[in-house]
């Protein structure tokens, strides 16, 4: 392991991380703290006040570029769902599902399991877009709060499915290569850890939700879908015209065709091996086609103008949701590649980014044995996930696991443990901007979703670490 020298930049970044986490736990806004952190890091990196101030704007631009695809897919899905709600097509689409989802408990586990299965094949981001808009109204109708649906999609998709990644195998390949192990050994070792982590976190979250599900009687007419709230403000300048009532037969036709189109997307993803951004783009393009078709059918000659109005409403919603997230993401992106792109070589030679350097330093100050190694792998994996990308630090996790492994049997377990910790924290269950897709689809605050996930994920990581110690 290369000996990395920590400089003031590392300590300042770590101090602001601790401060931001403390503020998030207290449910306070972190925008000003993040901006202060960016300015402080910019001042240390450039040693000029102008460079520090410039760094704030440039970091916002960098974060926006990184998040742009997510902003667009959410905005387009919202625009499509908006026209489906106004025309009544959405109501017809979800009616058959009520036969199988009749209780809030069934809604929580049903949405979660469906999300997990779809995410295993196509990753969570496309899965959220595929199932969220359709299943959310069903879940709310039977008494599951929107935050409960968001938690289920988040924990099962971005947590269980992504941390195992048994179909696409992106995560285990990265960690296994870094640890010098066969991919299959890491995958096999991860199975009990993923199962334990998934069961503990989802059961804990469900237990915490049960009182809310029993006491709050959600009614469909009382529930404002996020797509509706995006455009029903009295001051909305681009309010679409009232939608003429579509014939029942036409609504039923669209209600049948729309799920078939998304099912065709799933087939095409499998046949063409589309993953990640490509799969999301396919979903987004399909949503645009559906939006145009339904708008033309509903509005006739004014369909073109109304399509534009729906898109405007969708993008207004998307940027409204992402507005408070961009400053936070901008700060945490400085922990990875952004620091060298925005500021000229501020880190010492041999550095791999602030977050990865901190992970290496953490691994270097603890004794090397199985118990301490397991705890260190969990903490290191979690730290590397703080930049909001669970995949950015798992190569580091693999290399550190190889160092801590005292035996051949321990190496795969430690590697898998670090992988699980990094992806559960950074892949989209705790970092607010990483879990925005599920939060936006369900119309809940990403910060509230992160807060609700905090206890289940921490308890899950604790139990999983203990299990890993016994497996070593």
TrEMBL record:
Top-rank lineage group of the source organism: Bacteria
Record flagged with keyword Transmembrane helix: yes
Alphabetic keyword roster: Membrane, Transmembrane, Transmembrane helix
Membrane-spanning segments: 6-25, 32-61, 67-85, 106-122, 188-209, 254-273, 279-298, 310-334, 354-379, 391-415, 421-442, 454-471
Key word Transport present: no
Any coiled-coil regions, as ranges: none
Name this polypeptide is given: Transporter
